[in-house]
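Mods, move this if it's the wrong board.
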Amino acid sequence: MSLSDIQKSIFKYFSNSLQLLTNYQICSTGDELFETVSHHLLQKKQQLFDKFRILLLKQSMVCIVNIFIILFYLEIVNAIQQYLQSDHLNDMS
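Not the wrong board. Structure tokens:
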């Protein structure tokens, strides 16, 4: 067998075994691929938004706790100041 005969037989084998896609098949495959990718990206976006909302909620809870602690300390400081002022006024009398 010569080289050209081998090339012809290989060409015939591959040209007969390969399925030629029509324009419709190419377009429908592209549309399906687009649908799949876009659906996946939309799901990923929604997951990121959900995670962001959860993190915001957790952060807001931390801020509320910190605000309560600050208000509690301010009440303590005010009580101590009032006690010291009343004690100071009692010492003067």
